[in-house]
Amino acid sequence: MRRFNPKWFDDEYHDWLEYSVSKDAAYCLYCYLFKDNNIHQGGGDVFSSIGFKNWHKKNSFDKHRSSGIHNESKKKCQDLRQQRFIQSSFERQSSQLKHEYWIRLTASVNVVRLLITQGLAFRGHDESNSSLSRGNFLQTLSWYAKVCDNIHDYVLEHAPQNDQMTSPMIQKDIVTACKIETTKTIIKELNGDYFALLVDESFDTSRKEQMAIVLRYVDRMRFVMERLIDVVHVQNTSASSLKSAIVNLLAQHSLSLSYVRGQCYDGASNMQVEINGLKMLIKQESRSAHSFHCFAHQLQLTLVAVSKKCLQVGELVVLVSNI
């Protein structure tokens, strides 16, 4: 036989045999997932990393199945499925490992909070170890480790490669956690009172439509606050689609349109039109939700119009924007 036979999946090998179409090779699922330093015994390296291709030697499957390394890997897989392996692993973890993990997590959280507060980008074009500029997150964490002896021996190159708490996914998870906690604070500060909506939509660099939603309200100290509550992606920019996105977002925080006492948008037709515009759809839900044309947008329209008539004004606008 010169090729893999799919009927082998129906034989006694069905619970561990896997086939790679791209590599035209067979593998053992157990040995592939749970290989260790003894994997070379019983042809384990063939079925775990190299790939088996001697199709005319079907008896090799039986030899591998009866090998000790295969049965050991199978036992590990069975333990994992029954969650005994995970539970025992956590129980064996020493307090020192947990302490080191907590130090790395705290350091990453502190760096993320700093970058968020300053409105700085996280990633760099080249984040390799040889790069002179690895991005704000890694550079700041590296500096933090140099000046703080408490974390120096536990982060970056001193941490396990699979537990450095610096991957882009970890960064995003921490940012998401910060967003959730910040939103909770805003909703608590609002305290179920009336508020106004400030909404604007545009598309991002990936050409996806997104809508920024800001709440304007008076806090308990009688100060007027404007807080960005979220930036949501929308399927299209129709008034009904925007309203649906706003209603869904407010519902997530136990808010409703009935508490809206003001609306502020730019001059786009889907926002300001008197029949089916967003402002009218919201006003149908709350008759006290009075609408205003964004003053910043009015100023921009005025400057554009004046700049076309007066070159000196246009030059001044360009000069100020470049400062």
Task: Explain the overall architecture.
The protein has helices spanning 29-33, 44-50, 59-65, 68-81, 84-92, 95-118, 136-147, 149-152, 168-190, 239-252, 269-272, 278-285, 295-309, 311-321, and strands spanning 17-20, 25-28, 195-203, 209-218, 224-233, 260-265, 290-293. With 323 residues, it is of the alpha/beta class. A 5-stranded mixed β-sheet has the order 5-4-3-6-7. A two-stranded antiparallel ribbon has the order 1-2. A hairpin with a 5-residue loop joins strand 4 (209-218) and strand 5 (224-233). It is elongated, with a radius of gyration of 30 Å.
Features:
323 residues; alpha/beta; five-stranded mixed β-sheet; two-stranded antiparallel sheet; 14 helices
Summary?
49% of the residues lie in helices and 15% in strands.
Through-space gap between termini: 75 Å
- How would you write the strand order of the largest sheet? 5-4-3-6-7
Summed over residues and divided by their number, the pLDDT gives a mean of 82
Q: Helical content, roughly?
A: 40-55%
Based on CA atoms alone, the radius of gyration comes out at 30 Å
DSSP summary: helix tally: 14
Instruction: State the shape.
Output: elongated
Q: Would you list the SSEs in sequence order as H and E?
A: EEHHHHHHHHHEEEHEHHEHH
Helix/strand layout:
Elements lengths: L16 E4 L4 E4 H5 L10 H7 L8 H7 L2 H14 L2 H9 L2 H24 L17 H12 L1 H4 L15 H23 L4 E9 L5 E10 L5 E10 L5 H14 L7 E6 L3 H4 L5 H8 L4 E4 L1 H15 L1 H11 L2
Parallel strand pairs: 3-6, 6-7
Antiparallel strand pairs: 1-2, 3-4, 4-5
Helix pairs in contact: 6-7, 6-9, 13-14
